[in-house]
Amino acid sequence: MKHGFLKVAAVTPKIKVADPKYNARVICEKMNEAYEHGAKIIVLPELCLTGYTCGDLFLHEIVLEEAKNQLVKIAESTEGKDAVVVIGLPLERDGRLYNVAAVIQDGVVLGLVPKANIPSYAEFYEGRHFTEGNREVTSYYLGDEEIPFGVNLLFECTNMRGLVIGCEICEDLWVANPPSTDHALSGATIIVNLSASNENVGKDEYRELLVKSSSARLLCGYIYTSAGEGESTQDLVFGAHNLIGENGNILMQSKKFMGETIYADLDINRILAERRRMCTFGKERNLNYVAVPFKLNMVETKLERQFSNMPFVPTDTQSRNKRCEDILAIQSYGLKKRYEHIGCKTAVIGISGGLDSTLTLLVTARTFDMLGLDRKGIISVTMPCFGTTDRTYENACKLATTLGTTLKEVDIKEAVRVHFRDIGQDPDQHDVTYENAQARERTQVLMDIANRMGGLVIGTGDMSELALGWATYNGDHMSMYGVNAGVPKTLVRHLVKYYAETCNNEILKDVLLDVLDTPVSPELLPPVDGVIAQKTEDLVGPYELHDFFLYYFLRCTYSPEKIYRIALQSFEGIYDAEIIKKWLKTFCRRFFQQQFKRSCLPDGPKVGSVAVSPRGDLRVPSDASAALWMEEAERL
Question: Catalytic pick from 48, 54, 167, 170?
Answer without folding.
Answer: 170
